[in-house]
Amino acid sequence: MQPADKLIMHGLVVTMDDQLSLIDDGAVAIVGAKIVAAGASGSLSGFIGPATEIIDATGQLVMPGLINTHTHAADALFRGLVDDLALEPWLERLWVAERKFLRPDTVQFGAQLAQAEMIRSGTTTALDMFWFPEVSAQVAQAAGFRLMTGPVYFDLAEPDKIPVEQRTARGREFLQQYQHDPLITPCVTPHSTYTVSPQYLQEAQALADEFGVLLTTHASETAKEVTTVSERYGQSPPRHLDALGMLTERTVLAHCVHLRGDEIELLAQRQTVVAHCPMSNLKLGSGIAPLPQMRQAGVQTTLGTDGPVSSNDLDMWAAMRLAAVLHKGVQQNPTLLSAQEVVKMVTCDAAIALGLGDKIGSLAAGKEADIILIDLSRPHLVPRYDVYSHLIYAVGRDDVATALIRGRTVMQQRQLLTIDEASAIAAVQELAQQIAQ
Fold first, then answer.
1. Which residues pair with 251 in a beta bridge?
2. How many angstroms separate the CA atoms of 361 and 351, rounded?
3. Confidence band (pLDDT; 50, 70, 90) for 275?
4. pTM
5. Domains in the chain and their CATH numbers?
6. Which residues contact 97 (CB under 8 A, 6 or more apart)?
7. Other beta carbons less than 10 A from residue 40's beta carbon
């Protein structure tokens, strides 16, 4: 038995494996980036060697890191700048600010701030659509954060000043650079059917197919979007995407608030993934996505925060709790979406949906060690009868004590170890003074 590099011991281990095993006084043994065993602490003591780092998880819950399947992370630069507007006028105001202030250096500050926030709240993987993806990728590499990101398609030369006809060539360079990176999973990120023409949507899909990577885009977020796209192309956003060959098992559609029943069936048939972003949808007045109907039809559903301008933070616990209770109230059915189902949506199910199921999403031998520890000793987490109930209805972002990504400890007892948080905050505060003028 090879000694472990790290051994997490004496915690309540919520594995999220195929059996949804719970291990009281559990342990997780890590060698390098990978988990080599998960089991009772007593049975894993043989992994202790002279150089093994013991992480005492007494009084803590040990679980897979959370997976955020839709965000625009570096928009943290503009948090609180534009509020209380519908999506379309909100976007116009945001895009003005982005055009004026987004550069590689400012995106770096925003990405550092956002990744610090995500690590602090227990998110270890994010699917991010944002300008200058190479900058966010570099920040993630330094921070040890797992990021899915890639070339943006937009018909106008937006903050990155790349003409749309050059986006595929530039995107190919990004995919080539990161296709074998252990932390960065490249993907293709055309903005939407109302901002990208059919020609370039098809180019984006062809690029994704060339590299066998995921493609993500916005779809049916607002009723106005559906009307605009239907008038322009004679089809709703999902039907338009399907006609272009863009609904596949490697497609993640953000939002899907305004779907007809036949469109839900179409997404299920195509095995397309939906990233449900309830906080953003409510704040922008976009509506409430038919999440229970999608799940009943067999659509792969996951959860996202959206960007920190539309939801104002990157708190997956808030998204989880809102997703769990919102649909119960709207449909007056408290049995909809159990707590366990919602936890699966941000761990094992999300990993599978993003094509990362062989790497992350559960605590099992052979998986990479993306792990968070949650302090269960706080008053609002006592007593404990059902662990999944606590995770959805009681745990908050500040309860996350420690986080590991690929076996590297990135936060220990609430102290960030891989990001200079103070410098990022100071840089963003200084930039905010210019933005506010």
1. 215
2. 5
3. very high
4. 0.98
5. 6-65+360-416 (2.30.40.10), 66-353 (3.20.20.140)
6. 78, 81, 82, 435
7. 14
